[in-house]
């Protein structure tokens, strides 16, 4: 899984850092400038697809910021999109996982029947911090009877051991 250093530099130039948001002590990485740049989003999608080339047949995007890159990966890569949504947003029967993230707690849900046995699922989000969110999303993939092919994010916050938490499943991060 090789990182495109041009893309890495592009992201580093675009991500804005806000101290003490949404809570005291959190250094918030704001990717909204990245999302305003269609070429960067397209290159990110292509880099995720090539990192997991031939290894996934479905995308699971995590609400909310993960929907943006997940949709791009699904559309560019021609793989169906499944949604992991925050509690209470999806109708019908759902699989549910509670988790903690860097600045709180939350619950993710996936509609039952969305993922099938034998599916190789690439879980996509914008950012990896503690890994609580992606770990819960991965749990929902397994509960749904499918397999996690890998996790793909634009950026990882160093020092929070998110990738270690998701190990041995591969994690691809550009920054
Ligand atoms: O690795 P972790 O410590 O779990 O943190 C990473 C998660 O935190 C953010 O989502 P947030 O829950 O703030 O939701 P949003 O996308 O709806 O803004 C981010 O988009 C990741 O999903
Ligand atoms: N520091 C951070 N910046 C942006 N999103 C986050 N999600 C969890 N931690 C975060």
Automatic annotation (TrEMBL):
It comes from the Bacteria. Residues 39-155 form the Phosphoribosyltransferase domain. The keyword Lipoprotein does not apply. The keyword Phosphoprotein does not apply. Belongs to the purine/pyrimidine phosphoribosyltransferase family. Pathway: Purine metabolism; AMP biosynthesis via salvage pathway; AMP from adenine: step 1/1. PANTHER family: ADENINE PHOSPHORIBOSYLTRANSFERASE. Keywords: Cytoplasm, Glycosyltransferase, Purine salvage, Transferase. It is an enzyme of class 2 (transferase). GO terms for cellular component: cytoplasm. CDD domains: PRTases_typeI. The lineage of its organism: Bacteria, Bacillati, Actinomycetota, Actinomycetes, Actinopolysporales. This is Adenine phosphoribosyltransferase. It is found in: Cytoplasm. Catalyzes a salvage reaction resulting in the formation of AMP, that is energically less costly than de novo synthesis. It catalyses: AMP + diphosphate = 5-phospho-alpha-D-ribose 1-diphosphate + adenine. Coiled coil: none annotated. InterPro entries: Ade_phspho_trans, PRTase-like, PRTase_dom, UPRTase/APRTase. GO terms for molecular function: adenine binding; adenine phosphoribosyltransferase activity; AMP binding.
